[in-house]
TrEMBL record, chains A, B:
MF GO annotations: kinase activity
InterPro entries assigned to the protein according to its UniProt record, in alphabetical order: ATPase_NBD, ROK
Protein known as: Sugar kinase
Top-rank lineage group of the source organism: Bacteria
Taxonomic lineage of the native organism: Bacteria, Bacillati, Actinomycetota, Actinomycetes, Micromonosporales
Keywords: Kinase, Transferase
Family: Belongs to the ROK (NagC/XylR) family.
Length: 317, 317
């Protein structure tokens, strides 16, 4: 039996939008990328989102496919129940009723989701957490955020703000976080925090500061200060993940975001540090994300499929 | 229409069992208390549990009621899916298939739950969190544990170990926890940790150490060391609850356990300290538990009602 149904999926970021047509089996049949160009202001960004979504639906029909729903992922605070992009610094959104706008324009059922939560959904159902039921997806980049996914559903919270693992306390005497509090995980162990800490210790102040990936690289070649910064970050990450595991008791922790591209330089010492912190806990698997920067778009597609009750793609558990 | 259905509910603790017959509307129609007498060994405790449950079912029938299910709450690690009391120091259980044993003896559908998780279930559905959808119940006594309840279901975790908020890191330089790690919330802010810290600072070493309630009392009368210990504990609790809120984003935090009996001496400063820590977060209500030591037994009853698909009692949300 052939299935001509597809969903239109968009992952809207601060610089670009990753877009796709995805079948009920989770297979991507077409992808597109478009600039967000957020400097134009939120109204123009919304127009672009609607144009791109409508364009993809038209292309689907031209190819003999039937678009059945739309899924859109955005960063920031997202009220998924009401379909409203409550607040997003990157994209300039403030209380944008993106779901209703999309329904009005395309006439298709639409789901709005949070970028990290839908990324976690995709990793849990189609990626590195597949088949394990209880997954914590942790994206480590400029910031740190997480999605707790149980049986293929990501926890949203009472106000659309669940999963902010970057803001759990790990170092009360540590640096002040962007959120205003001292010692948040994000202030100590995000990719940007690692670069900052290294610059602070070495006194290197150039236009292009050393990145976390370079710190990991230099640590691997035996550079002492880089080694210290990297070890401190690993210890803080392990503390944060151990606190998360105490609360969530997941089977699998999936690490994504830019820092996860450090691969075994991150995973090997982090696994050891996490193991050391597991006392009464059941120890989770710690694995790298499998879907790369497509996770958000695939997750938006899953939200859309869920919205119309289609879950053929999902792994049996 | 009269409803003659009841469930048999038992909350098995280290010293006593709280038992009840509960109707589908959550109303308790009979209560009993029995000693656990754990020193007799786990086999004898299991026999007592089965005798008490069978006795309650018989009394229900004698009163013209129809027992339709059994709910049992136990402490420790509980595999709710398999109905096995995996491990409990208090009661001496180790891999006891309590659900199947109860089904075999009483011939009624039976649900096994974790004492804090079912306590949270009851507070969320019938108690202080009623009507708010997303609840974090935190029990502070000898230890600290939590239950995250969303839409009337408590998160269990992949291995039955979710909710261990007592073991999130809050003070890396703090005292060592019973679990073996330094600086866990429980090692700094449980009722026993507060008593210990006060004894340490004052050098008071008597057979009956000063309790956390007394520390709160002495702090209220202006005793300086007691004030310091109480403030340190409040700050650590606020840090722990703020980390929990970052991850869970609940509408309501319900405080239970022995320490919550300190009432406004705890709640007023803790609300202020939590407020100070809310940056990007949506601030939860912070309230005292409403069901006292009956929460576990009521929660066991809710589990039993859920097991047979009866949820008449539940608040609309």
């Amino acid at each position: 039996m052939t299935d001509d149904r597809v969903v239109v999926a968009l992952d809207v970021g601060g610089t670009g939008m990753k877009c796709a047509l995805v079948g009920p089996d989770g297979v991507v049949v077409r992808t597109e990328r478009h600039p967000t160009d957020a400097a134009r202001g939120p109204a123009a960004v919304v127009d672009t989102i609607l144009d791109v979504a409508a364009g993809l639906a038209d292309k689907a029909r031209a190819d003999g496919l039937s678009p059945i729903a739309v899924g859109i992922a955005v960063p920031g605070v997202v009220d998924e129940a009401r379909g409203v992009a409550v607040w997003s610094a990157n994209v300039g959104f403030r209380d944008v009723p993106l779901r209703d706008l999309t329904v009005a324009r395309l006439g298709l059922p639409t789901a709005l989701g949070h970028d990290v939560r839908v990324g976690g959904l995709a990793e849990a159902r189609l990626g590195a957490g597949r088949g394990t039921g209880h997954v914590l997806f942790v994206a480590i980049g400029t910031g740190i955020a997480a999605a707790h996914v149980v049986d293929g559903m990501a926890a949203v919270g009472a106000h659309g703000a669940a999963g902010e693992i970057g803001h759990i306390l790990v170092r009360p005497d540590g640096p002040r976080c962007g959120c205003g509090r001292p010692g948040c995980l994000e202030a100590v162990a995000s990719a940007s925090a690692i670069g900052r800490r290294y610059a602070e210790l070495t006194g290197e102040t150039t236009d292009a500061p050393v990145t976390a990936a370079e710190v990991a690289e230099r640590a691997a070649t035996g550079e002492q200060l880089a080694g210290q910064v990297w070890r401190e970050a690993i210890a803080a990450l392990a503390d944060g993940l151990a606190s998360g595991q105490a609360l969530f008791d997941v089977a699998t922790i999936v690490l994504g975001g830019g820092l996860a591209q450090a691969g075994d330089r991150l995973l090997t010492p982090l696994r050891a540090a996490l193991h050391e912190r597991m006392t009464f806990h059941r120890e989770p698997q710690l694995v790298a994300a499998a879907l790369g920067d497509e996770a958000g778009c695939l997750g938006a597609a899953l939200l859309a499929l869920d919205a119309v009750g289609v879950r053929d793609h999902q792994e049996k558990r």
